[in-house]
Write a structure and sequence with these properties.
The protein is α+β, with helices and mostly antiparallel strands. It is built from three helices and three strands, in the order E-E-E-H-H-H. The relative contact order is 0.24. The protein has a three-stranded antiparallel β-sheet. It has a single domain, classed as 2-Layer Sandwich (Enolase-like, domain 1). Helix content is about 40%, strand content about 25%.
Length: about 80
């Protein structure tokens, strides 16, 4: 089991908490701060998915004029979890 707490910068959320199985299946995602309804939706959609699949779908998403977004930061957290 992998667990990571990823502090974010440049987004409305301030922290992402991710738990994944050793085989790369995401078990839980929780965002601290940000757009609650949207981030609950993102969390539920990615739970049960493989890390690589989530990265392929969400990496590089931007929010408004920002160069990143909460889903993009989730990808960064997931990439970090792969290195652990």
């Amino acid at each position: 089991m992998k667990h990571i707490q990823y502090p974010t910068q440049g987004t409305c959320s301030v922290m992402i908490d991710v738990t994944a199985d050793d085989d790369g299946t995401i078990r839980s995602v929780a965002f601290l701060g940000g757009c609650d309804g949207n981030l609950q939706g993102v969390s539920r959609l990615v739970e049960g998915q493989k890390i690589d699949d989530v990265i392929a779908h969400l990496n590089g998403i931007r929010c408004g004029g920002k160069p990143t977004s909460c889903p993009d930061k989730l990808c960064r957290a997931l990439k970090q979890s792969r290195r652990q």
